Amino acid sequence: MYDIIIIGSGPAGLSAAINAKIRNKSFKIFGNKNLSNKLDKAPKVNNYLGFYGISGKEIRSKFEEHINEMEIQITEERVNNVYAMGNYFAVMVNEKVYEAKTVILATGVEYGKYLEGEKEYLGKGVGYCATCDAPLYKGKTVTIIAYNEEAEEEANFVCELAKKVYYVPMYKGNFDLNSSIDIIKDEPIKISGELKVKKLILKASEIETDGIFIIRDSLSPSELMPGLKIEGNHIAVNRQMETNISGCFAAGDCIGKPYQYIKAAGEGNIAALSAVKYLNLIE
After folding, report:
1. Which of 4, 36, 223, 229 supports an S-S bond with 27, CB 3.0-4.6 Å?
2. Nearest to 130 by CA among 167, 178, 182, 98
3. Could you tell me which residue ranges the FAD/NAD(P)-binding domain spans (predicted)?
4. Where are the extended beta strands (E) located within 85-187?
5. How far is CA 92 from the centre of its chain?
6. Rounded CA separation 153/8 (Å)
């Protein structure tokens, strides 16, 4: 049982982790050890206090140096769902479950566009974690829409149980897939069915399927955490970064504009301090 679990390793998540460490709380941060690749695209940064005129790559290097000095380790595992369990949170990571007294969401805004029919059939044949739900499709046909290489491992796992697996890659590369998996290089347009999913309609073809798993780099907050209040496309918070769910906080781009690193870092700081205050109240 951790005091705090932080989801996201951009400036908001890292700032939250730093402050959790300073306050001597047990925590775990999930994200990418390469930190924010968007920083690499910035030739010059002039609006981050104390870092005038340096490149995005140089700032990223400073971030890495800071967390390394504080011995903060980023866990590179994909969080599929977060459930509020009353007095704690269950964080689902494939077959594993982590528990924490508080959660800080710092997931950014790269969720991807929904397919037509995706929301309608969520839980009715559409899912986001193939390794979690694969047993439900034993002897059936499954389609995986993949936005990253991590989906290859999930597809290989599913093919051990399913009768047939189709793989629709939305990225380029050499695919490390079981020879029984059919690779469909076409653009998905719509998910259709009746009470449950029946078909994936692509730009130039159609697939009859019993289930569809969509593996994106990250989920939208509303899909990641049931019951979370969303305003527009962002998580609703107050000035203490508190969400509508007690013990859950959010910071960074996922709570709204402006999408700037200095803002995100400040919000991560507030979120961690608010989580610490919350922990002191319940302990």
Report:
1. 4
2. 167
3. 2-142, 226-268
4. 89-93, 96-105, 126-127, 141-146, 164-169, 182-183
5. 11
6. 22
Looking up tokens 């890659």, which residue turns up? 169
Predicted TM-score (pTM) of the model is: 0.77
Amino acid 38: pLDDT = 65
- Residue 276 pLDDT > 90, yes or no? yes
Region 227-256 average pLDDT: 95
Find out whether 257 and 231 touch, Cβ atoms under 8 Å: no
The whole-number pLDDT of residue 37 equals 60
**Residue that finishes a domain, picked among 188, 215, 242:** 215
Same domain, 95 and 131: no
Of the residues 174, 191, 215, the one at which a domain ends = 215
| 118 domain-assigned | no
Per the domain annotation, does 120 fall within a domain?
no
Q: Calculate mean pLDDT across residues 97-105.
A: 98
What pLDDT is attached to residue 173?
A: 85
Residue 244 contacts residue 228 (beta carbons within 8 Å) = yes
| Pair 16, 102 in one domain | yes
| Separation CA 94–CA 114 (nearest Å) | 22
Could you read off the pLDDT of 59-98 as tens digits, one per residue? 889 999 999 999 999 998 889 899 999 999 999 997 799 9
Residue span of the structural domain in which 160 resides: 126-215
Strand order in the sheet with 182-183: 126-127, 211-215, 141-146, 164-169, 182-183
